[in-house]
User: Fold this.
Amino acid sequence: MAFIVKKTIHGKEYYYLNENKRVEGKVKTKTLAYLGKTKKEAEKKAREILKKKKPEKVGIKEGKTEMVKQDISIEDMATFCKRRGFVYPSGDIYGGFAGFWDFGHLGVELKNNIKQSWWDFHVRQREDIVGIDGSIITNPKVWEASGHVSNFLDVAVVCKKCGNKTKIDKHEVGKVNCEKCGGEFDIKGEFNPMFVTQVGPIKEDSLKSYLRPETAQLIFTNFKHVYDNARMKLPFGIAQIGKAFRNEIAPRDFLFRTREFEQMEIEYFIKPGQKCFYEIGNIKILVYSAKMQESEKEPEKMTFKQAYKKAIMKTDWHAYWLEQEFLWFINLGANPEKFRVRQHMTDEKSHYALDTWDLEYEFPFGWKELEGMANRTDFDLKQHEKFSGKDLKVFNEETKEKFLPYVVCEPSLGMGRAFLVFIFDAYYYDKERDNIVLKLHPKLAPI
Assistant:
């Protein structure tokens, strides 16, 4: 590849035409010509030289470069990302800070490309979804109405055998053991993982508030504004990408469980009982229903349409959105064989959910939630209407009645987890060059 280089010698500028070539596995630079003392003159001469220059014959090497898919641990991936400029421990020169990460020059480009691809697929390419960007700190009454202040609780535990400190959900008490050594847990009590902050410079006059633990609630508090101003008609969705914070007892597994993270989320609103008019396709995936889990059966491979027809998935909207989220991943190069959908069991569903399915991915540390999709019905709008005293209902032109729309599905994805999926599935070993190659989709590749 030829390029122009400017050199300053004794205060004067000179322009040269250089070329990079790979010789015996190494890139070497050769000067082809002196181009003059001005940029304009240099560009003109360079065009003339390159026009006359005959293209070199390139010998085609027999055979293909052998790329081997390589599986690595989450710890090795963290090391790789740090070494190659993707992700660093935050404040690394001071020893880092558990649960917080900084994205390097390649990481920030990959992260932004993931977010851009998500926004294009879910918002710009659809007519039924619009976006907002809500505040990280908001009126604390929002979190009282949503139930986060009273119900957003985890259980703190310590392993009796190895001392590992972690958290478990309420439904897991007495049912799970330490993931490190298999020991029993000592229950230390419940805790609320929301970060508390004081709004106002004078402590006595300040107001207690929270860093948002999720992005969903400001979609609900802004619902009526968006519905009126964007002139949306049901069914429609509101999307948001933004930071959220949870004061985890034991952040772990690199970007999988952190204290500061970004969510890419949609709340999709319908009239109660409204059927899905989008086509559900015939893409197959492993389906793991609550009934299969209870009877200790293996997941079954089937299409999303079959899962709905067999009443494994309660609503057609859930089947549709699960398929759309799966499609977004595999269209960007993720390995479809490493995905499954799993239904939440009765004792693990959130307090607001009628039904919840997770899109799961087989990470090096096992099958884990990648993206949660809950049917929240009208729980949130009803709560905010009750606590605020404001009417959040919409008017039905057909029946001439007002009603609260249902959130039939809530695709909620952590950007850090999506980042891990794409980089794990792109990680290949080049035998010829003895080097790691990331085979990222062009829409995601940072360079």
In short: Residues 2-52 form one domain.
